[in-house]
Amino acid sequence: MRNRSGTGLTRRALLGSGIGAAVGLVSRPATAAFPGKVRVGAINPSSGVLAFPGQACVRGIDLGAKFAKGKFGIDMDIVHADTQSRPENGRIAAENLIRQGCTILIGAWDSGATISALQAAEVAKVPMVVHIASATQVTSQGFTQVFRYYPTSLTVVRKSLLELKALLSSLKDAPTSAAVMHLNNTMGQSTAASIDQAWKEVDVPLKISQYIPYDEKAKDLSVELAKAKASGADALVSVTRVNDAIMIVRECVKQGWNPKMIFSPNSNGVQDKAYYDALGKYGDGAILSTFWYNPKAPDAAAILRQFASDYPNDWLDANSGCAFEAVQIVADAVSRAGSAESAAVHAALKATDMTPILMSSGRIKFDANGQNMGGDVTILQGQNGRPRVIAPQAVAEAGFQYPLAPFNSR
After folding, report:
1. Is 325 within 8 Å of 357 (Cβ atoms)?
2. How far apart, in Å, do the first and last CA atoms of the chain sit?
3. Distance, CA of 377 to CA of 362 (rounded, Å)
């Protein structure tokens, strides 16, 4: 089944989308056109519990392919695969895409699905650019075909905690202890372990009172939130996907818990449009660390305009932004390789040294394990129904609002 609109995926289909020219999207001349189309497989959780970020990634990839044709002269045939939010489907999706002639893969958002997909990529010797997936295992298990743009959970958490410490130092009546609620999946466990390690390294002036894991398929977090409240903590650190981020805030409202701060390192929630759509006035106040776009990048204004034109009911977030950037990494490698053949692209990816096209994430270069050595972190806070950049100071567009406004007085 073909997805001609580029706006989403059906539940159980592999979808292809031809990419047209990006007229007016690029401010600089494109390189010479690459002969023929490059077939790229894109793996994301476009249905199931992770559908919100997965569909955002689809939008970023399709926009990225349109942009890449104008900038690099690379015509991409994107073939989309849906993992249905099941980690084990990563390998199935990768194998199907490779059989369809995809010589490069992008994926798979969820760390578990990414590791699963990499197993297939490794066997077939097809390079895979990982747009989002932070578990340490992605680049620590000896995979030779992995090129991860996103930082490890430890890198994200460490940089996030440095920014958090700086914010705390400026506060009067700062919180003194925090409960940590986290997903009990690959990403959540890796991030919780990173919090435990980096908290000590950074010397965050907050005592962690308790770690509270929960299942990613949970439909009710009332018991877990009650534990966090009962711990006596006056701050909440949460490691979430968007669905459970929404559930946590709703439970705070129901149970009358008003922590002074909600902070989510390496998570979804505050950055997602679905979060504000679901929570309304309760969506403001929480803070989150993530990759975010650089509004001062040379092509940023044109890219944002094109995104708004293509997807008027959505906004460009970290998911779509990282997915967009992954496509540019692929296009840059194919352009330099002069070939879409997997081995040639693999060699070119190893030599990548480029400035991000859109994201505020530092120069892109991969180490011997396939890990991008850049990785600047941005701190967002929900303000007036949207995420606003509050740190680092050099890119901040708003001040930090503290303490969290009590939910029962909004």
Report:
1. yes
2. 46
3. 9
Q: SS3 for 259? A: coil
Cis peptide, bond prior to residue 226, ω within 30 of zero: no
- pTM of the entire predicted model: 0.83
Domains plus CATH for the chain?
15-151+294-350 (3.40.50.2300), 154-290+378-409 (3.40.50.2300)
Residue 193 identity: A
- Structure tokens belonging to residue 158: 């460490």
- pLDDT digits over 33-56, tens only? 455 799 999 999 999 989 999 999
Annotate 262-282 with b (16+ C-beta within 10 A) or e (fewer).
bbbbbbbbbbbbbbbebbeeb
SS3 391: strand
Largest alpha-carbon pair distance within the chain?
63
What DSSP designation does 62 have?
H
User: How far is residue 37's CA from residue 39's CA, in Å, rounded to a whole number?
Assistant: 6
pLDDT for 135-171, tens place per residue?
Answer: 889 999 999 999 999 998 889 899 999 999 999 999 9
Residue 8 has pLDDT above 90, yes or no: no
297's CB contacts (< 8 A; 6+ apart) are 356, 357, 358, 359, 360
Distance CA 106, CA 86 (A): 17
